[in-house]
Amino acid sequence: MRSKEFNKVKPYCYEITRNKDGKKYFGVRWSNIAHNRPPIYDLGKSYFTSRPSLSSDFRKNKKAYKIKFVYTFDTIEEARDYELKFNKKILKNNKWLNTSAFPQIIHTDESKKKLRVIKLGSKLTKETRKKISKSNTGKKHRKETIKKMKDAQLGDKHWAFGLKGKDNPNYGKKHSEEFKKRRSQVSRDVWLRPGVREKIKKSMKGRIPWNKGKTNIYSPDVLKKMSLAKKNKPSPHIGKKMSESAKRKMKIAWIERRKRGVSEETRKKLSKAFSGKNHPLYGLKGKKNPNYGRKNSTSTKKRMSISAKIAWTSERKANVSRNRTLKV
Question: What's the whole-model pTM score?
């Protein structure tokens, strides 16, 4: 609720008029709450607006400006909403200096070039990064804001849409090993947070995979590139071990699939896909075969035998018998 209690510690909106040309500036302020200062002891005494072109001159020549307190508010959100509505009305009015007011920023081509030159090659210090990180910790966007941010980056709206090869700003850039390790550790820490896995599971339920029902998605050139990229490289799963619970789940799922068996249509597709020259081991005989000289251990043979017996259900026997009869 808005009021005019300028002697109380509350967020507030204000107007500043420059005497020499009558130009005005409209602003909002809530950081005074952290300093426990009412508006009348804040504006023009310790705070001189957030606009750099005004604040320095205002600080030096206080008599050259007129101050007007507009409203105080019970919450910061109320103050921000009022500022937003007001700025929408005055944004393109020449009498006001709010050309860079939230949420719209009006820049000329010249100002854009200047900003670009200023930012080029500049890097934030570790101290500044820590401050930014600390100030953003715990903050959450509203659902409406998150949706707007997503919609603003979809498809051809994305800043990198259509920028391929050398046109992409990240072309030729490589992450350092130190950065890769940090990113890897951050990803691991995220998964260890309580409730993260459950949230992801819920969000993924009901989603239709992008490649469902699609065939021949990748062109021969793309497939070759993918193949070459993986050749002579160790598997990403080397050295990784699954938990006992994961192994049990995979075993149960595999047994259930074996019990169900494969439909006749799927069998035909598999047979066609792996027949003759299509088979990955076609023509690889003797020492050329990757399985040449390999022997399964006694324990492996036992496990294979047990899994085959489990999968050989009465239902599957009937299916096999029926298919053989149809072929005859």
Answer: 0.35
Say how many C-beta atoms besides its own lie within 10 A of residue 124's C-beta.
10
Residue 2: beta bridge partners? 73
The residue length of the chain stands at 328
Name residue, tokens 């949230």: 199
- Confidence band of 107 (pLDDT split at 50, 70, 90): low
Instruction: Give, as one character, the DSSP assignment of residue 213.
Output: T
Q: Read out DSSP for 54-76?
A: HHHHHHH-GGGEEEEEEEEESSH
Domain boundaries, the chain: 2-109
Phi, psi of 273 (to 5 degrees): -70, -30
CATH number of 2-109: 3.40.1440
